[in-house]
Automatic annotation (TrEMBL):
The middle region has homology to RecA with ATPase motifs including the RadA KNRFG motif, while the C-terminus is homologous to Lon protease. This is DNA repair protein RadA. Signal peptide: none annotated. SUPFAM superfamilies: P-loop containing nucleoside triphosphate hydrolases, Ribosomal protein S5 domain 2-like. Keywords: ATP-binding, DNA damage, DNA repair, DNA-binding, Hydrolase, Metal-binding, Nucleotide-binding, Stress response, Zinc, Zinc-finger. Residues 65-214 form the RecA family profile domain. NCBIfam families: sms (TIGR00416).
């Protein structure tokens, strides 16, 4: 059982301490400190419920779906589950410079063009700086109101003055409240600012979009409570070396969390990519050895991704293993499986594996395409452009089926791939022999065992 802490009090001056002492630390009197009685337990009295606020059976609750209004960007609406719900608090996080402010400024412009009054509060830039960016991206509209404020009370006053239908705050870590101690961005300040804005959103049925900073580890800065308070958490991903950007939902109370929106950063702002099938494949007419196409799943979307491999002889005691866009540990595992099961030696060669377009593929369904690309590079045999591979490779050399197999096969057929090497080959040796047969090198490669 927990030990009850007792206090000791001076009978002359009322000074208290957690342990008994012979002399009062305040009035310096001797023998006046004694054990004080424990304070009485405070009980919360039940509150009289207002009329109509009593709990109801779940079968009597209204099941009408929440109304949504489109943001004007279909890829963003896809991630949100069909549009923005009134009163929803949406948090968009991402690395610096990835395009969070540009995307939300475009959302504000589209909403203003649709007839809504939008308030864009920038706590990081001045109004003139936001205006210059809006001119560059073509986001100027008279129904879009700008404010540069870092004080929470002033932002609430701006909301009451403008009466907007949508509020965007960029960013929540740079706004502070005078009712809470600490600097802006601290856990207490972020908690108070987010809770207040969410309360205003719920009371006025006013959707609020918040921009969140991330730490060097990629996590959202501030307390974890911030992600629990908001309704939707979206992550904006992308390599600044490429123009491709992805928006994926990590939490969504109004829709699925496996949708992904594709965007492309251009000189005029950000543009949505409704069909990104051709972004991750090379456009050469002549097949090249060391390449193989896989159908990867990004959320619910099937995307063709070309995997490229290069094998170079090396005299170094430790050959290089360089990967880009794929998991290095899975490539190392596939090299070991190919060397053990297919009897292809890679230990004296430098191995380079990369994807086209800067996309990152980490799912096991790309194992077979990586293995076929490595085999193609080692034999210098090019696969035809109509061949794709999907499957997970085990340590025993077996090919396991990947998730969403029907959707992958349908997407491969839509894009013109006539041959899909998948788990139907059962073993890796059969799959490699089938791929080489499609390349016109016979029906079977005798140097590869049928393990």
């Amino acid at each position: 059982m927990a030990r009850t802490a007792s206090n000791y009090r001076c009978s002359d001056c009322g000074w208290t301490t957690l342990k008994w002492v012979g002399r009062c630390g305040d009035c310096q009197a001797w023998g006046t400190v004694g054990e004080a009685a424990a304070p009485p337990a405070v009980r919360v009295a039940p509150l009289q419920l207002a009329a109509g606020s009593a709990a109801r059976p779940i079968t009597d609750v209204n099941t009408q779906p929440s109304p949504r209004w489109p943001s004007g960007i279909k890829e963003f609406d896809r991630v949100l589950g069909g549009g923005i719900v009134p009163g929803a608090a949406i948090l968009l996080s991402g690395e610096p410079g990835v395009g969070k402010s540009t995307l939300l400024l475009e959302v504000a412009s589209r909403a203003a063009a649709a007839g809504a009054k939008v308030l864009y509060v920038s706590a990081e830039e001045s109004v003139s700086q936001v205006r210059l960016r809006a001119e560059r991206t073509g986001a100027l509209h008279p129904s879009l109101y700008l404010a540069s404020e870092t004080d929470l009370a002033t932002i609430l006053g701006q909301i009451d003055e403008v009466g907007p239908s949508l509020v965007i705050v960029d960013s929540v870590q740079t706004v502070s409240s005078g009712l809470t101690e600490g600097l802006a961005g601290g856990p207490a300040q972020v908690r108070e600012v987010a809770a207040t804005l969410i309360r205003v959103a719920k009371d006025k049925a006013l959707p609020v979009l918040l921009v969140g900073h991330v730490t060097k580890d990629g996590n959202i800065a501030g307390p974890r409570l911030l992600e629990h308070l908001v309704d939707v958490v979206c992550q904006f991903e992308g390599d600044r070396a490429t123009a491709l950007r992805f928006v994926r939902a990590l939490k969504n109370r109004f829709g699925p969390t496996d949708e992904v929106g594709c965007f492309e950063m251009t000189g005029d702002g950000i543009a949505e990519v409704p069909d990104p099938s051709g972004l991750f494949m090379s456009r050469g007419d002549t097949p090249v050895s060391g390449t193989c196409v896989t159908i990867a799943m990004e959320g619910r979307r099937a995307l063709p991704v070309e995997v490229q491999a290069l094998i170079v002889s090396s005299g170094a005691p430790q050959p290089r293993r360089v990967v880009n866009g794929v998991d290095s540990s899975r490539v190392a595992m596939l090299l070991a499986v190919l060397e053990k099961r297919a009897r292809v030696k890679f230990s004296d060669c430098d191995v380079y594996v990369s994807t086209v377009g800067g996309i990152r593929v980490t799912e096991p369904g790309a194992d077979l395409a990586i293995a076929l690309a490595l085999m193609s590079a080692s034999r210098d045999i090019a696969f035809p452009g109509t061949l794709a591979a999907v499957g997970e490779i085990s340590l025993a050399g077996e090919i396991r089926p990947a998730t969403s197999g029907k959707q992958r096969a349908a997407e491969a057929g839509r894009l013109g791939f006539t041959t899909l090497v998948d788990s139907g080959s059962k073993l890796l040796g059969h799959a490699v022999s089938r791929a080489f047969a499609e390349a016109g090198k016979g029906t079977h490669d005798a140097s590869i065992p049928d393990f």
